[in-house]
Every structure is written in C-alpha cells, then in structure tokens.
Amino acid sequence: HALDIADPIRTQAILRRYGFQFKKSLGQNFLTNQRVLSEIVDAADLQPTDIVVEIGPGIGSLTEQLARRVQQVIAVEIDSRLMPILDETLAPYDNVQVINQDILKTDLKTLLASYPGHGAVKVVANLPYYITTPIMFNLIQGEIQPDRLVLMMQKEVAQRITSKPKSKHYGSLSISVQTLMATNIAAIVPKTAFVPQPNVDSAVLVLQRYTESPYRISEPELFEKIVTGSFQQRRKSLQNNLCHIFGKNQRDQIVDLISSLDLPAQVRAEQLSIDQFIALTDQCAERFA
Ligand code: SAM
Fold it and tell me: Where, by residue number, does S-adenosyl-L-methionine bind (predicted)?
C-alpha cells in the first residue's frame, strides 16, 4: 500500500468497503492525522526490543506505526466487527497479535509471558474516553508494571492528572497518579484529528515509571482515604473535610495536627503538596490509630 492506514483517504475507503458504523458507546474516534500519530510514537520513545500493548486498535492506524518500530505489538480490541478489518489492514505486519477482548478483562501478564526476552513494556493507546481512568489505574497498579504509558485522553483529564498544588485542576486524581508515575503532557490534540470528531479536545499524556519513587507512603489505604476525603468538598477547609473523615469530636486533635505541620488553620486541600499529604497521613496514623 502506498498510503498509511491513517491517511484520511485510505481510512474512508476501508470504512466504506466494510460498511463500518461507529459506535459512540465504545468511544470510537479514529485518528486520521499523521502528525498526531508521530507525536504519540515520539512520546513513546520506542526501542526495537520494546513490547507494546495497544488498547483499542480500531482499524489499525496507530498499530501500524508501532509495528514498524518494535519487536512485538499486542493490540486488544473489544469490537468484533473490527477483526476482519484488522486482519486485512495489519496483514503486512507479522509482529502484531490482535486480541478480541475487553481490556479490563484481559490477562496481560500471561500474554506477555508468551514473548520471553523482550525489552521494556510500554502501553500506547488512543483510549476509549468513557473508561479512561479504570483502564489507566488497571495498567499502572496491575501486574504488568509498564515502564511507560502514552495515552491519548480528554484534555481536561490529562490536565487533572498532571496538575501541581494550587492549580484549579489539582486534586485526588493528580495525587494518586503522581505518587506512582512521573506525568507529562506531550501534545494537545484538536478534535479535527479524528473521525468522527469527539466533543472535546484531547491530549497525549505520558506516564513514566519512577526509577526511584520520590514518595514513601507507609499507609497507602489511609493515604488514599485522606486524599479523597480532603478534596470531597473542595471549597471547604482541610480541617472541615478531616472532621468529616475522623468525626467532629476529633476537631481539637485535627486543629492541633494541622498547626503541627506548619499549615494555616484554614488551609484547603488544593494547597497541600504530595509530601504534605504524606506527612498528614503519618500524623493521622499516629493520632487516630
Ligand atoms: N486506535 C484507533 C485509532 O487511534 O484510530 C482507535 C481509537 S478509538 C478512540 C478507541 C478504540 O477502543 C475503539 O476501537 C474501541 O472499539 C476500542 N474499545 C472500546 N472499549 C474497549 C475495551 N473495553 N477494551 C478494548 N478496546 C476497547
């Protein structure tokens, strides 16, 4: 083929020949912009020995770019109507395994084990936006421990994930991801890069596993409870949110605890750094154990 799968002319021809109808419920917005594909591939920093897991290959536009650069691609697609299309479009690439499954139910560990001797494990995907966060957390907390993830998602979600304290997007999502991975937005992507066009702008988010984590969380469950609870009512003070978690009868303890961390009495959660949330958790573990 002279044209890449993502070329708008070839994409249209494929879709027409198979009479393919997009399913909105599956988040089907296919990429037809070569520049955006290069941005995704560049952000993945691919090495020939890498093994890449792709979620939702669609008709294979991104898959093709990955297959040209790495040893092996495993592409997991839920929509069985795309199987005959992928058979055809990816026929030139013998290093792609397409799996017709729901990514949330896929045993990636066993799949990867069938390719011994591979280099880094990377996840690259133009995600179905309706399940962005469950997919992301499954991958970063699951068994396969990818070295890097490059994920196209809604711009606003990417902003929330990468936000730092005192910014309006900073919240429990920023903290839970940043404690596990280094985060970075590699590109902002306009709606026009897709067919059909989604309702929102998108961003390419890069998550890189820390070589050494800057955070040591000794009580992960309590940390999680405190972080989500502290942002429960964003506009209210940390003091009030903590009273909600630990009980109003603990207010004196909580006031004392906040001042012992050198924080102003009326501080709000969005002003606390991750390290300050860790210190807060350690204090709560001691006082409310
Ligand atoms: N990678 C293609 C591209 O960039 O043109 C398609 C991306 S499209 C945004 C998302 C893809 O994920 C669709 O092909 C959709 O069918 C698939 N998908 C949706 N839910 C899924 C799930 N739970 N597991 C696997 N794939 C899913």
Answer: 29, 31, 56, 77, 102, 126
